[in-house]
Each structure stands twice: as C-alpha cells, then as structure tokens.
Amino acid sequence: MLMRMSSLFVRTLREDPAEAEVPSHKLLVRAGYVRRFAPGGYAWLPLGQRVLDRVAAVVREEMAAIGAQEVSFPSLLPQENYETSGRLSAFGDDVFRLRDRRGAGYVLGPTHEELFTLLVRDLYGSYRDYPVTLYQIGTKFRDEARPRGGLLRGREFLMKDAYSFDLDDEGLRRSYQAQRDAYIRIFNRLGLDYTIVAAMSGSMGGSVSEEFLAPAPVGEDTFVGCTACDYAANTEAVTTPAPAVNGELTHPAAEVIDTPGTPTIASLVEYANSVGAGGRTDWTAADTLKNVVLRVGDSILVVGVPGDREVDLKRVSAALHPATVEMFDDFAAQPDLVRGYIGPQVLAKLGIRYLVDPRVVPGTAWLTGANEADRHAVNVVCGRDFVPDGTIEAADVREGDACPACGDGSLTLRRGIEIGHIFQLGRRFADAFGLDALGPDGQPVRITMGSYGVGVSRVVAAIAEQHHDERGLAWPESVAPAFAHVVATGKGEQGETAERLASELTARGIDVLLDDRPGLSAGVRFADAELLGMPVVVVVGRRLADGYVEVRSRIDGSRTDVPVDDVVELID
Ligand code: ATP
Ligand code: MG
Ligand code: MG
Ligand code: MG
C-alpha cells in the first residue's frame, strides 16, 4: 500500500488543540489522525482509521485463534432488556436513553451482556451446543460524567466485547483463561507495556475479575504492585490477607452463618433515602457478597474471603431482625442485584449490628453498637483492628505498605490506563433471562458466563501515550499506518528516486507513506515525519549525489547512511 501525502486527507497542525490536556490527544489531533466533533466524540481520519483498523485486526486474529466467533449487534436497543437484568439502574446516568416515535424506551448500548444472553438462549437448547464464545467489535455509548483525554474516555467508543457460555464452573475457568491468554498476546503484539491487576467487577457483578492496565501518568486508575512477588491490584480492589475462616475458626464466639445460594439483595439506596438515612451509589452489592458471613456474639461480620460463596443477605439479616425480611420484599420489584449501600444508619434504625470488613466494601468499615467483647472477637477473627464507627479507606494504600500477598515485599503505587477488563460473571445474567441447557439427564443446566472487553479506540490512545516524544508519535510497527515514510528533500533526481524507492518497497508488501507534496521545505517535511510517527523514515536528500540515502529510526532515533541500491533490501 502506497499513500501519497499530496492527496492524502491529512493536515498537520503546529499548535496543540485548546481543549487537549494529555499527550495522546494533542498529538493525535495535531498529526491529523482524529478530529473532535462532540464532547467525547471523535471522527477518525485516514491515518487514524488505519491505526484503529490494525488494532482491531490484531484483536480479531487472537479472538479467532481461541475459537471466539464474531457477530455484530445493534447499538439502539430496547430498554426493557436492561431493566430485566437490573442494570438500567446500575448504570444510572451513564446510559443514553431515548424514545421512539411510539414512545417506546430505548438505550444506546453501554455493553451487551443482556443481548448476547438472549441470543444464545434463543438459538441454543442442548448441553451439546456448549461451550461457545461470541464477540463483536462495535460502538458503545456511555454518558461519561467527564469525557476526557480525547480517545481515552469517549462517550462513544469502540469496544471488543466477548461473552463465553459454559455448562459448569470448570468450563468458565477455561474460557476465562483462554481470553486472558489471548489478551496477553494482543497487548504484546500492540507494543503495549501493561500489568494485569486484580479488579473490582463494577456493575457487571461476578466474582473473578482482572484488568489490564497500561502504565501512564495520565491513567485514571491507580494500582499497586509488590516489590517482591507478582501481586498487583487496582487500589479499588486491594485485599488484605484473608482471615482464618471456612472451618478454621478458633474463636468460640464466632460461628459461620453459611448461606450459599443466589443472592437476592435489592437496592437499598431507595430504602436508605426513604427512611431518611441517606445512601451512596458507588459500589455494587453484586461485587461484594461473595463472602463468608460470621456471627460474632450478636454482631454480624461479612468477611471478604476470595472464593465462590455467595451471601444471601436477606437470610442473614432475617436471622438477626425479622423486619429486614419486609425490607427486602419491598424491593422484590427489582429482583436482581442492583447498586446499593447498606448505610450504617439504616442498620442502626433496624437495630442490626453489622460489621463490614473494608475488604468487602472498600472505604466502609463500621462497627455499629457492638460491645467490647464482640469487637475483640472480631479482631481475633480478622486478625486486625477495626476502627470503631470509623472509616478505613481501602483505596488509601501508601507506598511502602506491606504486600498483602507475600508479606515480604512492599507496595508501590502507579497510574495506569484500563485497556482491557475480563470477568467471570457466573450465572447472574443466565438467572435474569433464564438461560438453561437441557442436560444429558433431561434436567436443565443453568449456563455460566464470562465477559471480556478491550477498549479498541482507547488502546490507540494508550499506545500513543506510551510511544511518543515531544516531537510527535512513534508507532510500533504492528499498528503504524505505514512502515516507511519516504521523504525527498528536493525535486528532480531526489523526487524520482523517492518515487522509485516507494514503489519498490510497496512491491515487497511494505506499506509506504510518500511525502510527494510540492513546494515544502525539508524542515517542514522532517517535522511532519516526526509528528506522524512512522517507524522508519527514508530521507532522499543531498547525499544522493554520492549514492546515499539516510535511514532514520523513529523508534530509537538512529540515523544511518545507506547506499541507495541497498535500502530496499535493508528495510525489507
Ligand atoms: P473505566 O473504569 O475507564 O470507566 P470501565 O471499567 O467502565 O472503564 P468496562 O465496562 O470494563 O469499562 O469496559 C471494557 C473496556 O472498555 C475498558 O476496559 C476500557 O478499555 C474500555 N472503555 C470503557 N469506557 C470507555 C470510554 N468511555 N472510552 C473509551 N474506552 C472505554
Ligand atoms: Mg466506566
Ligand atoms: Mg474501570
Ligand atoms: Mg472495567
């Protein structure tokens, strides 16, 4: 492929765009890769489109390699599916909603778990059909509170979203692992530096969740890494060592109230507001209830043990206070897991003594009304002190803190860009939509799911964040719009040689950008080559008289004089 700058739809800018704050945004606009048309809405120009397409192509290849099949869904979707899953309220103001001419409610899809669940339910019936993994690369819409950083946080952005469907937990683990391995290959191929961190699963729900974070000063996520082992976690999800539970309890006052089964907690936000106790909406009950509940004295302790147990909060609360049963039933209209917050005031009003370990709900730990003896027992069980009626900020990790995984190393803090996020969703969506397979014994088997996202458009910006200098972009070979940028500094023989080299390189399958624009100084051409960021720049200049051209590496800055007859061979 040969792109001629004389006709390519690109204009480079000398000035940074006024609204741009981060390097990738400034450079992608200045280099003519993208243009802003709305808050968080960007047009892709030919060079940008090529980078985007190349990123998507890598994603497609690695999805195909693990047997994931590509489909494509609409973005304009009936609102009711997101009501059924409970996520309309979970997403809150992040969802763009609209009505059609008949008044029916629609959303612009923020993510597609609901639709993929419905699709598989419609077409698959037998256990023999499973497992299956489907994906799409499509536009997502989120009414982000603060669209920023150009492509980093759009309100309209390109995502690869994959969904796995399995018959059992072991199958889900395998599907998750396959996606995780594919992500490692994808991000390696894209030339990204990244860390895989333990994550909170957000509005998705589910138990196991990891993020791929690309370290960059402009990243909006903060994560910790250990100096001694490979522990890494988003500060939202930092865990302290699990206490001795699951049968290893030694304290006589502690008794495990084990409540396996499907959690049915409804939103307590409304409840909190209705009793005038206030409430928060910044965590998801679904995330936090995969734990073991202990009764210690007459207090209840929810301990954040990583694992597959789920707490039926209704049963737990009912064991303490019958009034809570009504409270849960009031919200039966919202049957699934919804964002909520069990305010200490609510529990106090109901006379419930309730302890929440900060490992369960970061930022919240409280001890409502428990007496000294209980508190002591709790501390024994947890192996640490609670701050009575206080708040422990789990996100408030300092450098230097001891590593919760190995205990030997200390934690270091870094900022990163979330480029991918993978979840073991479990049966949450299958429960909401009744997705079963008919098992070999004729009994229905509830399907278990995973979901796996890559921010394809964000990745373009993340690559730019990690591969640039003050003069411009410096694309890794795998995503560059062209491999070689051929620049002639003069007309005549230099121009003709540049043409010839460009066509010889192209004939060998190398993508070339040829600066054949008339009437520009060498300085302008060099500055543009550095701004545009092709990995190799071939300068056909004065030294051509001696039979040489100069080959510049945009990656390491090296400059080498090469005999003109050798240059094609050298680059190929
Ligand atoms: P963030 O924490 O940055 O808001 P998220 O956790 O809400 O992201 P997910 O729901 O996990 O995002 O979506 C999967 C992937 O989609 C993310 O890992 C990210 O790469 C990408 N993504 C999410 N929101 C945006 C956005 N507003 N603009 C561009 N890419 C996004
Ligand atoms: Mg988000
Ligand atoms: Mg996130
Ligand atoms: Mg995420």
Automatic annotation (TrEMBL):
Keyword field contains Cytoplasm: yes
Keyword list, A-Z: Aminoacyl-tRNA synthetase, ATP-binding, Cytoplasm, Ligase, Nucleotide-binding, Protein biosynthesis
InterPro entries per the UniProt record, alphabetical: aa-tRNA-synt_IIb, aa-tRNA-synth_II, aa-tRNA-synth_II/BPL/LPL, Anticodon-bd, Anticodon-bd_dom_sf, Pro-tRNA-ligase_IIa, Pro-tRNA-synth_IIa_bac-type, Pro-tRNA-Synthase_IIa_type1
Transmembrane annotation, as ranges: none
MF terms in GO: aminoacyl-tRNA deacylase activity; ATP binding; proline-tRNA ligase activity
Keyword ATP-binding: yes
GO process annotations (BP): prolyl-tRNA aminoacylation
Catalysed reaction, written as an equation: tRNA(Pro) + L-proline + ATP = L-prolyl-tRNA(Pro) + AMP + diphosphate
Family statement: Belongs to the class-II aminoacyl-tRNA synthetase family. ProS type 1 subfamily.
Protein name: Proline--tRNA ligase
Provenance organism: Planosporangium mesophilum
